[in-house]
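Title: [Solved] Aspartate aminotransferase family protein 3D structure

Original question kept below for reference.
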Amino acid sequence: MNMITNHLPTEELQALDAAHHLHPFTDGNALAAKGARVITRAQGVTLTDSDGNDYLDAMAGLWCVNIGYGRDSIADVAARQMKELPYYNTFFQTTHVPAIALSQKLAELAPGDLNHTFFSAGGSDANDTNIRLVRHYWAAKGKPEKKVIISRHNAYHGSTMGGASLGGMKPMHAQGGLPIPDIAFIDQPNWYAEGGDLDPAEFGLERARQLEAKIAELGENKVAAFIAEPVQGAGGVVIPPETYWPEIQRICDEHEILLIADEVICGFGRTGNWFGSETFNIRPDVMTIAKGLSSGYAPIGGSMVTDEVAATLNAGGDFNHGYTYSGHPVAAAVALENLRILEEEKIVETVCNETAPYLEEKWMQLGDHPLVGQAGICGMMGSIAMTPDKSARAGFAGGAGQVGLICRDHCFSNGLVMRHVGDRMIISPPLVLTKSDIDTLIDRASKALDLTLKDAT
Ligand code: PLP
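Solution (posted by the thread starter after getting help):
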């Protein structure tokens, strides 16, 4: 058998990939025609492809490599754990040291009394857990009819049946008969796209109050929970108006429903605090975590719950739910080492005091570019909305996404990974980005915008 290694020519790797590898969120025909970009190594904030090209990774992989690439101590911890105890489960009254240590550390870091973690292998399955968990919670309280979970259009909560149902992505619902029953939706707080003539503060209140109206429509006795990302990530880094979260919190407090903060992207420093819930002053009952929990070095996620939720679940007897890899020892050890690095290198503090303010200053200047209708940033996640007409916040004539795609390709050609969501360009770089990396990022993004402007007009 021929060994497939980094040393094979790119075309050969691409042909093999197209022949045998089914990719997430990828058009297989386009893949066969053009071939996938083959990434062979990464160090710090830089990716290298099979042709030797370097890219500044302004997406931290998929919003996850918070501590940057190439951390030897994580590799060492993983190797040590694999030798000592590569696997054991946490079912049936069994545990192991990495799961104990990680759940204790998370209780220390998480806001409020979110002191208990149910582990998964990522964010989607953690949100599946949340669906079952909040329904089990209400059943344990003698209210099994409280089942409906309210979410938002254009939210992203994962790709499993439960996660994709909770998400509000229409193209995902169109495939496979989603959503599952008892999921309801309100509109997103996207002022740029949907705010019309309202000012952002009024719009934020209007969108939050849709939650109260939806609870009234469904009946408070039927609603189990509301789920939302503090800042919508995959929806295009949609930063809600300042009025939005306080009103959502009021509504959740006044009505008997649980608040689930999906912190899969916002958690572990992304918004300038350890959790987005702190940035927006949210008091969740349940918090979804993944991605930055291990900085992507190992697949792990979880559902964190408050003392009260945990006590109620425990009073309800066995929770008949679990994953083979819940609390996987190697993934848990890797996550612990990642948290140690985040803490000891004071990465979140540096983001808050230095990196995020510098990035914000530079990023917001992109708002002056003739192609940009709005620039927005929250900590280390930012977006720019491209438009042919700034004052009207208009879309492009050819349909959403075409100009975004052009811009993304210009980014790649200029050594920058920036993602597009429709015609919004988004970033979520590693938190360890230096000021000089930020200058490079902005320089390359400006160049890509200039080239896109030429192509789009
Ligand atoms: N929730 C949010 C907010 C996400 O952004 C994602 C992934 O991007 C998920 C859940 C799903 O996580 P995973 O891809 O680890 O299953």
